[in-house]
Amino acid sequence: MKTHLVLRIGEIFLKGSNRHMFMNQLEKNIRRALHGHADVRLHRFHGRYTVTCEPGQQEAVIGVLSRIFGLTSISPAVVVEPQFQTLSDTALALVQALPQKPASFCVKARRTDKRLPYTSLDLERDVGGVIHETCHIPVNLTRPDLLVEIHAGQDLSFVCVNRHAAPGGLPVGISGRLEVLLSGGIDSPVALWMMLKRGATVNAISFYSPPWVGEEAKQKVEALCRVLRPWGGPNKLHMVAYGEVQKILRECRPHKLATVLYRRMMMRTAGLIAQDNRALALVTGESLGQVASQTMHNLIAIEQASPLPVLRPLLGFDKYQTVELAQQIGTYETSIIPCADSCTLFAPDHPETHAHMEEVERAEAGMDLRAMALDLARNAVCVKFSEDGPRRESP
């Protein structure tokens, strides 16, 4: 017998006449994610989806679906005929089979087939009464420990007692293309994940500084990309060898501006790569005031060098919030692996916290900044990710 999974959507319901665009993209993403699972079928009904699979596939399929943006939850369901007694008996049996007795419960019913000789309220009241009297579980209509859900429809009727969380948001691919400046730290992978949640197609750009920073920096960023791939991205990673240019910028004076100058060149280079990939904006993991380079004055000075808008989804987060989210999405353990990176290389002992554009422009005077950025962008190595693993392409 096939296992049925009920998939629910959230924010997409708020869309108006273009809701079909979001639903079609979500359906495309679900089918792509389930492509490697044989005998799994997706069906759409009443603004929701169901998936059928073999019982032995259930855990793996739920694991895949729980990373699909646009879905809010997944429930294993027992599909039955819409007779009142059958629905009631099935609900009672599912509650009795739970490994642990819940502290409270509530029945939520939806009758979409109006020809049936009972109402949604009838189901909720009477089925709830049977469960309460048989299992002696208190009813809590506002914050139940267990939610028993019943759907009685013309095409499909089912009962379920368990929900697995999904991330919500919008389906990846509906909100345009972005390029994320991805380091090996905690923040930028979380920023990338948050833009995936808002439906963006995301690629990544990372800077490393040979010979001062070795291959382990590249390997760490690639590992973060592999962790994020089941969530929907990135599809490509451009690795930019930044060491020689960073050494030149280190000699600019005053030396306290060095970190600002490094990041401005990163913005120029990333902007060129992003434009070549038809991205609409850059994304960083910066949080206001978190480190010396992320003061308001410095953020403005750094963004001024970018040819594209710069999005900062973590701007109002504190570090504890970012760490908590990194742990939830699976990037934290990789991010905390000790490894040198370009962000800290050649950093001044006393970095500027209130950069002024006049001083920044004087420090950069005499250098062909665009030529330097073009050279960095042209020589970037592209790593493409697919189901078969990463594949490098020469610049």
Please outline what is shown here:
This protein is an alpha/beta fold. Helix content is about 35%, strand content about 20%.
Molecular shape: elongated
Mean pLDDT: 93
Radius of gyration: 26 Å
- Oligomeric state, counting identical vs distinct chains: single chain
CATH superfamily of the largest domain: HUPs
Number of domains: 2
Please mark out the parts with pLDDT under 50 across 5 or more consecutive residues, or reply none. Answer: none
Kindly, what is the distance between the CA atoms of the first and last residues, rounded to a whole number of angstroms? 52 Å
Give the CATH topology of the largest domain: Rossmann fold
Descriptive notes:
It is a single chain. With 395 residues, this protein is α/β, with parallel strands linked by helices. It has 2 domains: 3-165, VC0802-like, CATH 3.30.2130.30; 177-393, HUPs (Rossmann fold), CATH 3.40.50. Helix content is 37%, strand content 20%. It has helices at residues 19-33, 58-65, 84-96, 120-135, 187-197, 215-228, 243-250, 258-276, 296-303, 319-329, 332-335, 357-364, 369-378, and strands at residues 3-9, 41-45, 48-53, 71-79, 105-111, 146-152, 157-160, 164-165, 177-181, 201-208, 236-241, 281-283, 310-311, 381-384, 391-393. Strands 1, 2, 3, 4, 5, 6, 7 and 8 form an 8-stranded mixed beta sheet that branches. A 7-stranded mixed beta sheet has the order 13-12-9-10-11-14-15, with helices on both faces. Helix 6 (215-228) links the parallel strand 10 and strand 11. Helix 5 (187-197) crosses helix 10 (319-329) and helix 8 (258-276) packs across helix 13. The longest helix has 19 residues, at 258-276. The protein is elongated and about 85 Å long. 41% of the residues are buried. The model has no long low-confidence stretch (mean pLDDT 93).
